[in-house]
């Protein structure tokens, strides 16, 4: 019924249905804002691009990523001319929080934990480390939409969280993804980046 409603409008690009989808997704994940993107990979790429631009990160600055993840997590760091620094994983296949601090250098700018295979990372420990070293957290929650840990939606404790609605994930739009944030200015800027400045 809803698909037919959209088809009857003649509008197949961003519109009121997409806005409603974003608002509901944000609410369910404890965020003020969600931006629907063409993929989880694009969501991650734009999130890092935004942070690099906002904080004046230099080419070659470092982002800590788990050594076991889908390759897109590392690729988006490289696409932003940043350096991925691999941190080994624990028995849950997520970034080993006991090994993060030894990888931090004066060029480290962010941690990009991944909630791999629907298993939440140890975000509270990661947040403490990030606060200690003044690092940003972009959580790759592409495989954990609607998952909760400690009563909170996974991703909701990060500066920016990214999700994927690719075919193999929890809900599917064929391809697609979301960037979530509580920062209005970040939402406006990242949405503009996705829309090529519009």
Beta-strand share of residues: 15-25%
Structural class: alpha/beta
Radius of gyration: 17 Å
Mean model confidence by pLDDT: 94
Through-space gap between termini? 31 Å
In spatial order, strands of the major sheet run: 1-9-8-5-4-2-3
**What's the SSE pattern?**
HHEHEHEHEHEEEEEH
Largest β sheet strand count, sense and barrel closure: 7 strands, mixed
Task: Give a verbal description of the structure.
The chain is an alpha/beta fold and 198 residues long. Helix content is 36%, strand content 19%. Helix 3 packs parallel to helix 4 (72-79) and helix 3 crosses helix 7. The longest helix is centred in the N-terminal third of the chain and has 16 residues, at 40-55. The radius of gyration is 17 Å and the shape is globular. The mean pLDDT is 94.
Topology:
Elements: H1 2-9, H2 16-28, E1 33-37, H3 40-55, E2 62-66, H4 72-79, E3 83-87, H5 100-103, E4 108-111, H6 123-133, E5 136-140, E6 148-149, E7 152-153, E8 160-164, E9 177-181, H7 184-194
Parallel strand pairs: 2-3, 2-4, 4-5, 5-8
Antiparallel strand pairs: 1-9, 6-7, 8-9
Helix pairs in contact: 3-4, 3-7
Quick structural overview:
By secondary structure, this protein is of the alpha/beta class. 36% of the residues lie in helices and 19% in strands.
List the main descriptive attributes of the protein structure presented here.
198 residues; alpha/beta; seven-stranded mixed beta sheet; two-stranded antiparallel sheet; 9 strands; globular
């Amino acid at each position: 019924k809803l698909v037919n409603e959209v088809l009857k409008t003649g509008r197949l690009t961003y519109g009121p249905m997409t806005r409603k989808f974003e608002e509901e997704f944000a609410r369910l994940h404890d965020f003020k804002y969600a931006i629907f993107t063409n993929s989880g990979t694009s969501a991650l790429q734009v999130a890092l691009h935004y942070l690099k631009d906002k904080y004046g990160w230099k080419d070659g600055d470092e982002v800590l990523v788990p050594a076991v993840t889908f390759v897109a997590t590392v690729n988006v760091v490289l696409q932003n001319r940043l350096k991925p620094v691999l941190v080994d994983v624990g028995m849950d296949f997520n970034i080993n929080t006991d090994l993060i601090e030894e990888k931090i250098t004066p060029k480290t700018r962010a941690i990009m934990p991944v909630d791999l295979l629907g298993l939440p990372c140890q975000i509270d420990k990661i947040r403490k480390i990030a606060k200690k070293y003044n690092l940003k957290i972009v959580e790759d929650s592409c495989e954990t939409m609607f998952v909760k840990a400690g009563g909170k939606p996974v991703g909701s404790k990060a500066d920016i969280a990214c999700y994927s609605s690719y075919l193999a994930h929890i809900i599917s739009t064929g391809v697609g993804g979301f960037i979530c944030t509580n920062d209005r200015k970040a939402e406006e800027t990242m949405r503009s980046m996705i829309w090529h400045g519009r």
